[in-house]
Structures are given as structure tokens and as C-alpha cells.
Amino acid sequence: MGRLVDGEWVKTSIITSDDSGAYDRVPRSFLDKISPDHKTYKPESGRYHLYVSYACPWATRALIFRKLKKLEDHISVDVVHPDMLEYGWSFSKDFPGSTGDSLHGFDHLKDVYLKADSNVSTTVTVPVLWDKKTNSIVNNESSEIIRIFNSAFNEITGDKKDYYPESLREEIDAINEQVYHDVNNGVYKSGFAKEQDVYEEAVTKLFKTLDELENRLESKDYLVGDQLTEADIRLVVTLLRFDPVYFGHFKCNLQRIKDYKNLSRYTKNLYEIDAVRESTFFDHIKRHYHYSHEEINPQRIVPVGPRQNF
Predict the structure, then answer these.
(1) N-term to C-term CA, the chain
(2) Are 186 and 211 in contact (CB under 8 A)?
(3) Is the model's pTM score more than 0.85?
(4) What's 303's DSSP letter?
(5) Is 56 an active-site residue?
(6) Which of 44, 157, 263, 276 is 20 to 30 A from 70 in CA distance terms?
(7) What is the DSSP letter of 31?
């Protein structure tokens, strides 16, 4: 594993930590938009391409939005191999569901980043939203990509469903903020912690927030309002990975999601949505985390269970 520094691949740990030993996620590098008013990136059918990993929760939420917003015929997609090894995400096709790089024929995702900027300094992450016309990366921040998908292509698809409605935005933003820090990223803070006290602080916050979400979902189907919003999609990708991976691999083992009455019901119900179910691949998920994180699992043994995955 590693990252790009001034256009050169530097081998280093994927676990970036601050001075206290706490996991410190590196911000994304490409943060542009797509809109009719943008001077470069305008909504067009067939112009954009999405690079994803089925294992990655951040990439999966972009895939879910691509399906929810009927963008599958308009935005093409490639899927990396679940193993993230010496040179990062690979386009090897020797794992079911991995597609290779249909645009450039590259061996690794880092080469896509270098094609966009030959001198870039960045971590090489998914999802990546690529522009075929300018040979550039539009955006590699999943929270922004799902907002692009939510509205930028409405006139092309005719799909006007809004998963970030203006009347609920303040509440959605507040939930997203808490869920991101304590749950989405909280599982990584727990799993990648390098000090006992740092781990205990992260896992305590994680389960405190899960308990609050459990209470929030009493007699409710969705986090905000009476409809599916981006807040639900951002949360469910973590919940779906929790029992198969985070509970054991990341030591988030105070309680399983299946042990929560409301969170387990909520997760199962969201999994029944076609866009969620068809974007969730437990074989990629379990393989990636257990095989790629050699610092955590040096024998790279991938567990057989759990027996039931929602």
C-alpha cells in the first residue's frame, strides 16, 4: 500500500495516524462539481465514468445513488479487485465482479490519478468520478459525488426524486455530521487505533451513537422525516459491513447490529431496496478488509462467517 507524492508512488501504511495514535483520515484531492452552469463539467449522458470498489462503503454509497437516480445507462462504471496491496487498488480481474479498467487498460487505480495529474500528491481512493471528455478526475469525495448524482442529471434521466430535500437539509446535515465522525469513520478510528486509550475512546463514541440511533429509529423507518434520504444511505453502508467485518476485524465488539431491535430492522428493510441490495457484495467486503489490512490480520485469513448476511 502507499500513496502518490509529486507523481511518484511511495509505499507506506494505509493507516495514517496523528501524534496520539488516532486514525487521521486524509482529505480527498479532487472536489469539482457537475452542473449546467459549470465552465467545464456539464451534465451529459455517457460522458462520465465511475471507479468503485464493492468492498468500500464510501464507494458503495455512490453506486447506490447511481441506481436510485437511474444513471446506469448514463454513467459507466469499473470495479477494482478487493485486494488493496503493494500498489493500492488493482484492476486485476481474477476475483468475481472485478472488471478491470475499461477506459485505459491500466493495472492500478493510481495510474488513473496520474493520468489526471502527473504530479499529484494524494491518497488513491475510491470512488473516483472521471470525465472522459477532458481526461480528468471531477471528484473523489463520495459525499459530494452522491450530491452530484442526486440532482445534476435530472433533466437527462427525468428522475426528479430528491434524497436531499431542502426542507430536511438542516436535519440531514446534523445527522450526517454525527454519523460520519462516530460511525462511518468511527469504525476505522476503532480498528486503526494504535493506542489502547485512543481505541477505547473511539469505540465508546461509536456505540454511544449507535445507541442513540437505536432510540431515534423507534417506530420509525428512516432517520429524517418519513422518507429515504441521503442520511440513510450514508449510514446503511456501514451497518451492512458491521457484523461481517467491523465487529471482529476492527474490534467493534460491544454489540452486533443484529442485537439491536431497531437498527437491525432498519438495516434489513433498507437492504430490501434494489439499489442497496444490488450494490452490496459481501464476498468483496470480507475479502478486502481481512486480506488487505496486513497490519491487523498478518495471516490474511478470511473468515467464513457470519452465516447470515441480512
Answers:
(1) 31
(2) no
(3) yes
(4) P
(5) yes
(6) 263
(7) B
3-class secondary structure, 10: strand
252 in active site: no
Catalytic site residue from 23, 56, 163, 260? 56
Cross-strand bridge partners of residue 76: 49
Q: Which grid cell sits at 221?
A: 423507518
Average pLDDT, the chain: 95
Decide if 282 contacts 237 (C-beta within 8 A): no
Profile the chain (310 residues) by mean pLDDT over runs of 10 residues: 93 71 66 96 98 98 98 98 97 98 98 96 96 97 98 98 98 98 97 96 98 97 97 98 97 97 98 98 97 93 82
Q: How far apart are CA 14 and CA 182, in angstroms?
A: 20
* Rounded Cα–Cα distance for residues 66 and 57 (Å): 14
pLDDT-above-70 percentage for the chain: 94
> In the block, which residue shows the cell 478486502?
288
- Grid coordinates given for 303: 473468515
Asked if residues 152 and 38 have their Cβ atoms less than 8 Å apart, the reply is no
Residue of 87, 164, 180, 188 with catalytic role? 188
Residues forming a β-bridge with 17: 23
pLDDT in tens, 149-170: 999 999 999 999 999 999 999 9
